[in-house]
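Section 3.1: Structural characterization of target chains.
Under the original work plan, the team committed to producing a structural model for every single-chain target entering the pipeline before any wet-lab resources were allocated. The record below documents one such target. The sequence was received from the expression subgroup and is listed exactly as submitted; it comprises 358 residues.
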Amino acid sequence: MEQTTLFDETIDRILDKERALRASNSSVFVVDEELNLISVNNKEVYDSEGKRMRPGDFLNCINAANGDGGCGMHEYCKQCKLRNAVKKALDINKVVVDECTLLLKDNTKLSIEHTVTPFNLAGNRYATVFAVDISARKQKQIMDRVFFHDVLNLMGALNGFVQLLLEEPDEELLREVKKLSEQVISNISYQKDVMNAENRSLTLLPTDITVRSFMDDASISLCSTAQNFNCKISITNDCGEEVPIRTDIRLLHRIILNMVKNAVEASHENGIVTVNTYLENDKSSVVFAVHNEGVIPPEYRSRIFRFGQSSKGIGRGLGTYSMKLFGESYLNGRVWFTTSEEDGTTFYFALPLIRRRL
C-alpha cells in the first residue's frame, strides 16, 4: 500500500471518531511535528511562494502576519494556545481539547475550540486538529458577562434615583438621573457600534475638524472619566500648529476615551494619566498617546487587543479590542502600546493626515 493511501486511510479512521464535530462545518487540520499544515479539510494548502503554511498563516492571525517568517516566529507565538495544544498532544501522545481566541489581520476575532489528536505514521508524528468556530458563543458570553451586567447596574442605580425623586423632587438628583441615562445610551450605542463594525456594516460620518478642537471637546469626558477613578489627568497638544483632520469624530472619541479609561483603571488612586498629541516625524500622521505608570503583566501582552481578555479579569478587554477594530479597520490608523517597569504603559493611536475617503 502506498504511503499516501495509508495516510488518507489513517486520517479517515481518526475522522470517524469525530463524526459529530466533522458535521459541524468546522475545519480539520493535519500538522506535522513542526506544525506545518499537511492538509486542511483533506486538501493541501501552500502560501503564495509555494511553501507549506502553518495554522496561524492559514487563519490570518495578526501575529503570523507581523512575525518575520510567519506563524511561530512572532514573540507572542510562544503563548499561542493553539500551538501549545498541538505540542502538548504530541508530547504526551493524548488528545488535548482547549479554546483560543485569535486576533486576525483585519482586526476581527476568531474564537475556536480545538481538539488535537496525535497519531504515528511510517515513523513520523502527526496530529489532526478539529477547529470549531465558537466566536458567536464567546461573544454572547462576553455580552452576558460585561455589557448586560454594566447596563443592568446603571439601570438599577437609575431606578433608585427615580424612586427618590418620586418621594421628594430634587434638582441634584435630576442631574444624576440625566447623567446615568446618558451613560446607558452611550453603552448601548457603543455595543451597537462594535457589533456593526464586526459585521462590516458600520457607517462612518467623516467630519473636518482640527486636533485642538477635537481635544478641547473631548477633554470634558476624559477629565470626568479620570475623576470617577480618583485620578488626575494632564492633557497637552504638541502638534505646534492647527492641524486639520478629517475623520469620524464619534469613533475617534471612543478610541481616546477607551485609552484613558484603560489607563485610569490601571492606575493607583491619585495616579496621573497623561494625554498627548503630536505629529510623527514625517508629519504623515497625528499621534494620540495616553500614558499611565502601571505595567501590563507579560502574560497579558500578547492578547491585550483580543476580544474579552484583559489583565483586569476574564470578560474585560472590550475597550482595547475596539481600539484596534475602530482605529485600524475603519479610521485607517495604527494602534499599539509600549510597557515597561521603567516607563510605565503608553497606548498610541496614529491617525493619518492624508485625506482618505472614509
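Residues 135-167 form the longest helix (33 residues).
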